[in-house]
Structures are given as structure tokens and as C-alpha cells.
Amino acid sequence: MAEVRTEGSINSDRNSSRRSLRSESRRRRIIQDTNVASMNVLSANYESLDYDNSENYIFLREERLKGLSFIMKKNVCRWVIFLCIGIVTAFVGIFIDVAIEEIAKVKYSRIKTYLDDAVLHNKLYIPFGIWIAYNVFPVLIGSLMVVYIEPMALGSGIPQVKCYLNGVKIPRIVRVKTLLVKSVGVITAVVGGLAGGKEGPMIHSGAVVAAGISQGKSTSLKLDFGILKHFRDDREKRDFVSGGAAAGVAAAFGAPVGGVLFSLEEGASFWNQSLTWRIFFASMVSTFTLNIVLSAYHGYPGHLSYPGLLNFGKFTDLSYELFELVIFIGIGAVGGLAGALYNYINYRITLFRMRYMKKKYLKVMEALVVAAMSATVAILMIYFSGDCKPLGDDPTLYPVQMFCPDGQYNTAAALWLQVPEASVRSFFHDRLESIDISTMVVFALVYYCLSIWTYGISVSAGLFIPNLLIGAAWGRLIGVTLQSVFPGQEWTSNVGKYALAGAAAQLGGVVRMTISLTAILIEATGNITFGLPLMLILLTAKWVGDFFTEGLYDIHIQLNGIPLLPWEPPPLSANIYANEVMSYPVITFKVVENVGHIVDTLKKESYHGFVVVDPNERRMDDDSNEPRSNGRLRGLILRHQLIIILKNKVFNEVSWDFNELSVDIFRKQYPRYPSIDDVHITDEERNYTIDLSPFMNPSPYVVQHMTSLPRVFRLFRALGLRHVIVINDINEVVGIISRIDLARYRVHRHLGKISVEEMKISSNL
Questions:
Q1: Which residues contact 68 (CB under 8 A, 6 or more apart)?
Q2: Considering only CA atoms, which of 459, 396, 379 is closest in space to residue 201?
């Protein structure tokens, strides 16, 4: 169990923390070696991104030499890159959508044919086997690709993108291989009948597209366009990835404003006005491109009738009475409760997977079992359903008669023999009598369970559409119930608005999105009138859900031990000081340092930031109340900088023109910097020296050792820092604070109670 620190307990142990500062035996934070999956453990294996540029000598020299024409060209280039991001993201979505639709046509038409023949010949085991095969084979392909080729393509990818934009370096998240596996994996998951959608993964796909285009290079494809070399740093790349994520939302839902708000609410930690315009531009281009192509594909060239992959259909009437706001708030509360239960069950299932299903073949087998079970429950529901409706009344592409009278079709079969988006539209727009209450209840319960089980298996699929479908089912059920209780009332005549309310509540209760999801649903429905009810529904779902559990994305982030920093510092933490949070003693270098010492330190230590100091002879006695000094601060230098300096042999004893030094020696290695093991240093070179002054950042961010945790947190979070140096009263280095030092203080909420939880740190997650 993690230690829960309240205000009283923090005060009581502050003195003991200060006493421990006098001992240099404490190296960083004690690492707890554990393989047990837990939400109370942080992984020590995640690095931070360098969102703060190192303003060293060579960087500032380059900045001074830039003219106005260079600045203008760079700004124009940014707009062109965002244009390309929008177009390419749209075509990724088009490829996925068209592939799913064409394969689904073949699959469902064949299953319908086998079902009709089986009823005539009393051989239901034939369509049952065919359906399982149509599910299992695509899922097998997708799962094998995810498990054995690129595990980072698992799921929707939204939690990973959120962490990346927060400043956490997630390995392989924006590689071309990840995009290829994700695209194929989404197609196989959806046509394989899993309770997953293609809309969530579009956000990850857009992020990968943005990262690839903006850098102008691909290690996998061995491409390198040097014209974009000035965008090769984490800060620039972050802004483009924010735009790619927004373009993915816009392509998925036809919601450019929702895409911008999503990137702001769930993704980007750092924002400015000019970035807002560029992201909105990319989102508009993405929606427009996808709309033109898909409208032509569906036979309506120039009509612009398909703004997104998910088409909710046209809501002709979404009016409501004032008193209905109370009903919508109640629907939001139901969604919050259903979402909290959804998240808790999925959390327990995920824990089981992490503890007992580590072997790759087991992950593939689970995906196949889920695919087979999806087909099994579908055909059982169709078999036992007595819900029959006349043909021609409702738009079903593959009507199955089953045991219905002539001229009628099985409504349960109509729900299962189509992609999930079509089922969502059915609940939104089909006539009141088109689906029986019993069918809605059974379908909602079955799909709820399948979706919980599906999210987290080793396939590429999201949870937006499954939860919209679940919520639309029980929301429509509420609408039908209200109509039976208040017959003849005009405000109950449209059950579709309650289906939409339920869909919003269910999705909001699971992911806890408010502003962006409101905008997405307004744009997707094309009706701003319903904006206020949607906002009330989502806020209520969030408040009720937060009372019991975290949002599902946050749960999976915590289970993976990712040191995500929230928007605000933990409450009740103002009496925690920097000298209690920092890691020490600090590994330091002198301004002119011995090559052998640098090499030995880099091989021995895994740290990514090293403080450059002027050593002093002032030492603290063991009885002193002050932290022990490491020398007077001169600057900060990063691990990859030292490695590249060593690799290029920029030694004082070697003839080297420092005026020719350029930031390009670092840019050309970005983002896959070499390891210290890739550097070969001779015995003679070990005795050489390096002048670190041109390369170190002489003005790193520092705090006094008595600075409060909230102040350090806001500085770190707002500026996107990787390291904050802690100094004493005379500017001597006493410690250093990194992301994981701050992330280990986390807010703990349970049944309305809030406390500060101090996490353990593990190197085995």
C-alpha cells in the first residue's frame, strides 16, 4: 500500500525528513523492486522530453544570426506542415473507413446468407462456425501484429498521446511502424466484430502523421529532408503532435472545434494563441479533405455529406422543455455510475492481465477468445430473440428472418449484422416501435460486458463507439419508458434525443471529458440547441464518476506507472519543501572536465541531467542543519549532449574551431540519440579534457531549498521542464528535482475524501 500523507502527517514527519538530508547515503529515491501491477507505483523507466530549449552558447549564437527572412520562412513552413498534417490524417481515416466498409459488406452479407439457409435446413451450427471464423481470422492478424511487431499500437493510443504531450517520453509512440500496425489493426478489430471503434485510434494516427511530417525524416524508411531540420527538437515536435491529435478528432467526428478543444483539454500541456490558429487550420483541412473524398465515394460528389468517419445522422428536432434539464441531469448521473462501474471492472481485468498474462501467445489467445465470444453472444441473442418487425419500415441492410413470420425480420440480427456506428444511428433515428424493450435491455447489458472485456486486449481499438452504442441503447430505453409513463406528451415524442443523452452520459462517465466532448457531439449532430443539456449531462457524469473512480484513461496511465503531471499541484502540499522532494547528492561535472571521468560517469549512472559547478572547499559538518553543497552552480548539461560531444571528439587537445560548432551536431541525431556504448574512446583520449561551457545551459531554472512543493510544481509544469536545480542560500547546488520526484505526490480521492498519496517507485514496471 502507498503511504497516504495528510496535512497532519506531513507536518509530523517534516523534521525527520530534514534530519535525513544530512546523510549523503540517500541516492535519489529508494527504488522498490516489484513486479506487482499497482496504481500506487511509478515506473523509473520513463524519461522526460526536453520542452525547455538549452540556451547554450552555440544555440544563442545561431539565434542571433537569424534574420527576419528566416523567421518568416519558418512561420510559413509551419503553416504548410499543418496543412499537410490535415490532408494526410484525413487520407489515413479514409483508408481505414473504406476498408472497413468494403470488408464488412462481404462479411455480413455472407453471414446473412448462411443464417437464412441454416433456418431452412436446421443447421445453425454452420453460420455459427462461419461467424466465428469471420471474427477470429481478422482479429488473429491484428493481434499478431500488435503483440509481435509493435505493442505501442495497442488500444486507442489516447493515453499515450496524452502522456507524450504532458512531457513524458513514450518509446515508439510516433513511429511510422506504429501507424502502419495501428491502421491495419483497427480495420481487423472492427471487421472482426470486437466491441471497439476506429474513432479513438484516429487521434493516435494523427499524432504519428504530425510527428513524421514535421521532422522530415524517418529512420525506418531511411528518409531525411534537411529542409525541416530546424523543427527537430521536442518543443517544436510537441506543437505539431498537438495539431495531429486535433486533426484526428476532426477526421473521426467531423468536429474541427472539438478537435482543438480535445487537444487543449486532454492533450497539450502548453498552449498559445498562434498554436490555436494553426491547430484549428489543420482540423478544418482534415475535415474538409475527408468530407470531399467520402462524399464522392458514397455517390454524392460535391455534396459534403460525410464530414467525419462517425455519422450520427440528421437530428431534425432536438428541442426540449426547461424541466427536462432535471431528467438530463439524472441521465448524466446514471452515466457516471455506469462509467464508474465500467472503469472499476476494467481495472480489475487489467490487473489480472498484467500479473498473469505476460506471455505473448496468451495475449493473442485472449483476443481470439473475445472475438469468438462476440460472435457467440450475437448468434445466441438472435436465436432466442422473438423481436420481429415488418420489412421495409427501418433501414437494415441485412435483414434476417430467422424464426420470424414471412415479411418480417429479426431486430436483434439487424443490430449485430452491421458496424457499431450503424447501430448507434439505429438507436438515434429508428421509429419508436422498431426495437422492443427486451431487445434493448439485453443488447445494452451484453455489449456493456463485451466492451469492458475488449478494452485492453492486444488489438488496436478505441472505446468511443462502444460506449456511445451502450449509452444510446439505455438512453433510448429511458425515452421509451418516459413515453409510456407520459403518453401523448410532445416532449416525449422524440426518443432519439434521450438516446443521444444516454450516449453522451455513458461516454462521459468512462472518459470524464467535458468541454471537448460537448463540442464534438454538437458538431457531430449538427445541432447547437442541445448544447446546454449535453454540457449538464457530461458535467454530472464526471462529478458522479469521479466520486468513485478515476477516468479510464487515467487508470491505465497509472497502472503503467507513467509519471503524468496533472494541471494543478496536490492539495495540502504547501508545507512540503524542495529539500524534501529533491534527489541528492547530485552528479556534477566541472566546467573543464576530464574525458575519462565523463565516460565512466555516463556508464555508471543513468541520469539524464548533470549539473556543472565550480567545486568549492566549503563542506558542511554532519551536525549542520543545511543540506550538503556540491559546489557553486555554473550550468546544466544533458546526457545526450555529452555523448554527442564525445562521439564528435570535441576535445581541448584536438584542433577544433569552436566558431564552426553548430546546433546541427545535435539535430542530426534527433530523436534517437546514440548510447554511451556507441562511443569509442582510446586510452590516450581518456586523459584529454572537454570545455563544457559552449554546450551547457548557463541559465537553468533553479529554486531555493525552502521553496514549497506547489511553487516548484507550477514552475515545472507551466514551463515544461525536465530538471529544476535546488540551491542553498549562497547559490550552491544541494539537489535536483526531476519529473518523477514531483509525480510521486498524487491526489488520492475515495468516496469524496481527498488526501495526498506518496507513491513508490519501481524499476521493474
A1: none
A2: 459
Secondary structure of residue 551 in the 3-state scheme: coil
CB 205 within 8 A of CB 248: yes
Flag whether pLDDT at 11 surpasses 50.
no
DSSP 203-239: HHHHHHHHHHHHHTEETTTTEE-GGGGGG-SHHHHHH
Alpha helices (runs of H) in 488-530, residue ranges in sequence order: 496-511, 515-525
Q: Cβ of 390: how many Cβ atoms within 10 Å?
A: 13
Q: How does DSSP assign 334-355, residue by residue?
A: HHHHHHHHHHHHHHHHHHHHHH
Please give the Cα distance from 264 to 522 (Å, whole number): 18
Angle at 79 between CA 73 and CA 81, to 5 degrees: 100
Residue with the larger pLDDT of the pair 486 and 9: 486
pLDDT at 509: 97
Cell of 524: 457531430
User: Cβ distance 607 to 638 under 8 Å?
Assistant: no
Coil, helix or strand at residue 594:
strand
Give the rounded percent of residues in the chain with a pLDDT score beyond 90.
Answer: 62
Distance CA 268, CA 260 (A): 10
**Contact call for residues 402 and 414 (beta carbons, < 8 A):** no
Check if the beta carbon of residue 568 is closer than 8 Å to that of residue 694.
no
Grid cell digits, residue 551? 477516468
The string of pLDDT tens digits covering residues 716-763 is: 988 889 999 999 988 899 999 999 999 988 877 666 677 777 888 887
Q: List pLDDT tens digits, range 555-573.
A: 999 999 999 998 888 887 8
Q: State whether residue 86 is helix, strand or coil.
A: helix
CA distance 104 to 101: 5
Strand order in the sheet with 609-614: 588-590, 609-614, 632-638
- Of 488, 416, 469, 409, give the one whose Cα is nearest residue 199: 469
- CA separation for the pair 340, 448 (Å, rounded): 13
Measured CA to CA in angstroms, residue 340 lies from 43, 70, 230, 255, 306 at distances of 25, 52, 45, 27, 33
Q: What are the Cα distances from residue 73, in Å, to 78, 230, 432?
A: 9, 11, 59
Q: What is the 3-state secondary structure (H, E, C) of 365-419?
A: HHHHHHHHHHHHHHHHHHHHCCCEEECCCCCCCCCCCCCCCCCEEEHHHHHHCCC
Q: Which among 30-34, 130-134, 161-165, 558-562 has the top mean pLDDT?
A: 130-134
- Could you tell me the three cell numbers for 390? 415488418
Are 345 and 448 in contact by the 8 Å Cβ rule? The answer is: no
Query: Which tens digits make up the pLDDT trace of 46-102?
Result: 988 988 888 999 999 888 888 888 889 999 999 999 999 999 999 999 999 999 999
Q: Quick one: cell of 30?
A: 529508494
Cα separation, 325 vs 337, whole angstroms: 18
For the segment 687-694, the average pLDDT, to the nearest whole number, is: 93
Nearest to 537 by CA among 566, 508, 563, 577: 508
Q: Which pLDDT does position 2 carry in this prediction?
A: 38
All 3 cell numbers of residue 490? 410532445
115-136: string of b/e by CB count within 10 Å (b at 16+)?
Answer: beebbeeeebeebbebbbebbb
Rounded CA separation 745/758 (Å): 5
CB 698 within 8 A of CB 721: no
Confidence of residue 26 (pLDDT cuts 50, 70, 90): very low
CB 272 within 8 A of CB 534: no
Q: Are 51 and 717 in contact (CB under 8 A)?
A: no
| Residues 240/275, Cβ–Cβ less than 8 Å | no
Give the chain's length. 765
Q: Three-state SS for 632?
A: strand
Q: What is the 8-class DSSP label of residue 658? A: G
Which residues does residue 48 pair with via DSSP β-bridges, in sequence order? 168
- Give the cell for residue 681: 574512446
Question: Which tens digits make up the pLDDT trace of 232-245?
Answer: 889 899 999 999 99
